[in-house]
Structure formats: structure tokens, C-alpha cells
Amino acid sequence: MKKLEIIVKPNKVEKAKMVLVAEGIGGAMFTNINGFGTQKGKTYTYNGVSYEEHIFPKVKVECVVSDEKVEPIIEAMTREVSDGEIGDGKIFIYDIENAVRVRTGERGEKAI
After folding, report:
1. DSSP 8-state symbol, 88
2. Per-residue pLDDT, 46
3. Contact partners, residue 53, CB within 8 Å, separation at least 6
4. pLDDT score, position 18
5. What are the angstrom distances between the C-alpha of 7 and each of 37, 43, 85, 101, 108?
6. How far apart are the first and last CA of the chain?
7. 8-13-16 Cα angle (round to 5)
8. DSSP assigned state of 22
9. Which segments of the chain does DSSP mark as H helices, in order?
10. Are 2 and 93 in contact (CB under 8 A)?
11. How far is CA 23 from CA 8, 42, 48, in A?
12. Does residue 93 surpass a pLDDT of 90?
């Protein structure tokens, strides 16, 4: 099993969810976050005053999937969620030793 931590722009959340559903993923967690990276900064002008923004809103999507689902999800995410611009996001992949469904006590892949 693997945990995928997928960082996307807020306007791409629905597409990210659609990718997971299309790949047969039964659930995920979505968290609003802020961060910075290679995107550096962006200059805005409001009422004639310029200011720079260096921290941007993102959404972290977390899900635990079977090993064979990892590559299809990565391929679909990079195809569907990317604008081809700096700041599109990242996907982090973690090994998961075990999982337990609290309601039933099921373990392993049956729990996800």
C-alpha cells in the first residue's frame, strides 16, 4: 500500500477528485494549505499600490491506495491537473505498513 500526498492548485480540486474516482479510489482527504516553492512570487496591483505575494494557497489531497493504483493515478493527475506552469503541484509517495478500519477491525488493503 502507498499513501499519496498530492498538492494541487485550489481550482484543480474537482479534477483531482474526478481522477481518484475514475481510478476506483473510495475516499480521500482534502486540506487547504499555503506554501511556497519554485513559483517564487507574484506582483499584484490594488488601487494603484503594488505588492508581492510569496505564499500561495494550495490543497493537499491524501489517499492510501494499493501499489498497482499508484502509477495510473500519477499519470492521470499529471495529465488532467497540470496547466504546464510553475506551481502546478507535487505528488509525494509514502510506503504504508498497515491500515485498520476502526468500525470492523479489517486490516491491510481490505481496510482501504
Report:
1. S
2. 81
3. 41, 42, 44
4. 97
5. 12, 23, 14, 25, 25
6. 9
7. 80
8. H
9. 13-22, 70-80
10. yes
11. 18, 35, 47
12. yes
Distance CA 84, CA 86 (A): 7
The pTM assigned to this predicted structure is: 0.86
Q: Which pLDDT belongs to residue 15?
A: 97
- Selection from 33, 88, 94, 36 nearest residue 63 by Cα: 94
Whose cell is 507574484? That residue is 42
Nearest alpha-carbon partner for 56 in 34, 28, 84, 30: 34
Residue 8 half-sphere exposure, CB side, CA atoms within 13 Å? 25
Higher pLDDT residue, 79 or 86? Answer: 79
pLDDT of residue 107: 96
What gap in Å lies between CA 8 and CA 107, rounded to an integer?
A: 30
| Mean predicted lDDT score pLDDT of the chain | 93
User: How large a percentage of the chain has pLDDT more than 90?
Assistant: 75
Q: Which residues pair with 44 in a beta bridge?
A: 51
